[in-house]
Specification:
Lysozyme-like, binds zinc ion, 6-stranded mixed β-sheet, about 35% helix
Length: about 230
């Protein structure tokens, strides 16, 4: 009995003294908070989703054209003339794309040539230069767009009256449109679709509405359509 009392007294005495035997040293706490090497979980692996084939194709087309035009796709085209002077948004249903089938040209040259055919003037609404006759990629707005007049470019009534005629200077049977021309065309068509609600299905080449080679075999349709916003 005396032994038990002695042990109890000793225990109480140690507790009262705040004996360091029962407290974890700070350094030991720090060590304990870091899990042992073997218990560390590996970093979670992100699930990889393979892109669909069509998406890959579109990305490749965009990358190819982006490379060709040095990443300038998002710049608005340089426009010479008035785009919105009398805009009649409901009038325009189609966009018809042409080439000039000539190495050089500009609005004034086509205006003169078309007047010699006894037309009112240049038959297109827009002319996009290739650096020979006007600046490469410059969009010239003709009187037909400024005054919202029907065109004289398609040879088919519906597409002349309700179709916006865009002519790229160049002969795309033998050569290719310049990168700046394609950049300007994409910007212009995106603008026209935005402002006039023209669906992408109504954008076509001249040869799609009439028996002609215009706008030539070298117009890159796939890349062009892949870059439209709609
Ligand atoms: Zn044409």
């Amino acid at each position: 009995m005396r032994v038990i009392r002695l042990a109890l007294a000793c225990s109480l005495l140690l507790s009262a003294a705040g004996c360091s035997v029962w407290q974890k040293p700070v350094a030991e706490d720090v060590v304990l908070t870091a899990p042992p090497e073997a218990e560390r979980q590996p970093a979670p692996v992100r699930e990889r989703r393979e892109p669909q084939p069509l998406l890959l194709e579109v990305r490749a087309a965009v990358a190819a054209l982006s490379y060709n035009i040095r990443g300038g796709l998002l710049r608005p085209p340089r426009v010479e003339g008035r785009l919105e002077a009398r805009l009649q948004r409901g009038k325009w249903r189609h966009i018809v794309i042409h080439h000039s089938a000539s190495d050089a040209g500009n609005e004034a040259i086509f205006d003169k040539a078309h007047k010699e055919r006894r037309w009112r003037g240049v038959g297109y609404h827009f002319v996009i230069g290739n650096g020979h006759g006007s600046s490469d990629g410059l969009v010239e707005v003709t009187f037909r767009w400024e005054q919202q007049l029907s065109g004289a470019h398609a040879g088919v009534k519906e597409y002349n009256e309700r179709g916006v005629g865009i002519c790229l200077v160049g002969d795309f049977e033998r050569k290719h449109p310049t990168a700046k021309q394609m950049e300007a065309l994409v910007g212009l068509v995106n603008y026209l679709q935005d402002r006039c609600s023209i669906p992408t299905g109504n954008i076509m080449g001249h040869r799609h509405v009439k028996s002609t080679r215009c706008p030539g075999k070298n117009l890159p349709w796939y890349e062009f359509f892949s870059l439209l916003n709609h």
